[in-house]
Structure formats: structure tokens, C-alpha cells
Design brief:
The chain is mostly beta strands. It is 12% helix and 64% strand. It has one domain: Porin, CATH 2.40.160. The radius of gyration is 19 Å and the shape is elongated. It starts with a helix and ends with a strand.
């Protein structure tokens, strides 16, 4: 996974260097936190401070961009709450984990004009796949489910230009449709909100 991530980052930023003079490509690396909702919060109800996204956006017009996004959020929680599983219920001290990895196509619309010192609010929609891995450890036992989900993620934010770079602030709602099997629920759809702050090159 680390090697694949490094390759994605390298491709995005190498492509950006060749386009920076034209100012038509934006590469963004963001620190990403996550607030679990719905079924996700039923499994893990703790706010996550661990996550990031890497994305590249190509401007087809001054106010419109399309691109790709790769991200990762890690959620965990220690609890003694009883949980229903396929063949009964489990109680006792448990450690629950979830990795959420979005791989998505993106589209964003930007308000205002591109100027060196002007804030640019934007809204966007991201759609594609989530790889979601869940695990629960209790004593010597470990239960796992690993699934690919189709999903989407609407987003609002603002770009703060800094010459040929920018700071990006955004809030994103992630929803992954039910897919595959889960050890604790018949409905394994997942949802969470990201709060992101990122550094962009090439704006």
C-alpha cells in the first residue's frame, strides 16, 4: 500500500510540474479528519484524526475542473458495548478498526475569477469506489470484513491563493453503498464527514 501511495503522489506531482506554467493543473495534498455517521458510527463512534487525501485537478475552464482523488481515513475505538453479529452477540472489551480508502473521479465548480489574492469558494462531487476494511478484536478472536463499495462524496470548500500555490479548506460528506458481507450488520453501507486542510501546487 505504501509503495502504491508513493507512486500515485509521484505521478500527480510530476504531471503538475510540467503544467505549472500553463496554470491549468492543481495538485493538492490534504490532512483529513473524519466524523463517523450512520452505520459507521454504530461500529466506531470516535472522531478520527488520522487521514489524508491526494488529488489532481485539471481545469477545462477557469471555473471548472475534473480530476482524480485517492485518500485514506483510519478509525478505531476501544469499547465494551455489546454488538450483534451473525450468530449471536458479543460483549466484553473490544477494539474496533476501520480503514476507508476512496478512489474517485472528481468534478469541481469555482466561484469568482482566478486572481492571485482572491478567495475562491468551490463545490464539487466525487464519485467512484471505497475500499473499506473493518476488524474487531476481542480476546484471541478477530472478526474481519473487507469490501469494495460504490460511493459518492459531495464537497464544499474554498481555495486561498498563494501565488502559484494555494491552501484548500473543505468539508466532504462520504457515502458508500452497501456491498459484500459484514460480520455485524445486514446493511454495511458506510458514511462519514471529512474536514480537510490541504496545500495545493499549480493554482
Amino acid at each position: 500500500m505504501k509503495n502504491k501511495l508513493f507512486l500515485i503522489i509521484l505521478v500527480l506531482f510530476t504531471f503538475n510540474v510540467s503544467n505549472i506554467q500553463a496554470q491549468r493543473f492543481l495538485s493538492v495534498i490534504s490532512y483529513s479528519t473524519a466524523l463517523p455517521l450512520g452505520n459507521t458510527s454504530d461500529f466506531i463512534n470516535s472522531f478520527s484524526w488520522r487521514g489524508f487525501t491526494v488529488e489532481g485537478r485539471t481545469f477545462t475552464q477557469d471555473n471548472l475542473s475534473f480530476g482524480i482523488l485517492f485518500g485514506w481515513n483510519f478509525l478505531d475505538e476501544k469499547t465494551d458495548e455489546t454488538i450483534q453479529i451473525e450468530n449471536g452477540a458479543v460483549s466484553g472489551i473490544q477494539i474496533r478498526y476501520m480503514d476507508a480508502i476512496p478512489i474517485m473521479a472528481t468534478a469541481h465548480y469555482y466561484f469568482g475569477k482566478r486572481r492571485k489574492k482572491s478567495l475562491r469558494p468551490f463545490m464539487g462531487i466525487n464519485a467512484g469506489a471505497f475500499v473499506i476494511n473493518q476488524r474487531m478484536d476481542i480476546g484471541i478472536w478477530s472478526l474481519r470484513s473487507n469490501n469494495w463499495h460504490f460511493g459518492f462524496a459531495p464537497e464544499v470548500g474554498v481555495l486561498v491563493p498563494l501565488g502559484t500555490s494555494s491552501i484548500a479548506f473543505s468539508v466532504k460528506y462520504n457515502y458508500a453503498f452497501a456491498s459484500g458481507n459484514s460480520f455485524y450488520s445486514d446493511d454495511n453501507s458506510q458514511s462519514f464527514i471529512n474536514f480537510n486542510i490541504g496545500y495545493g501546487i499549480g493554482y
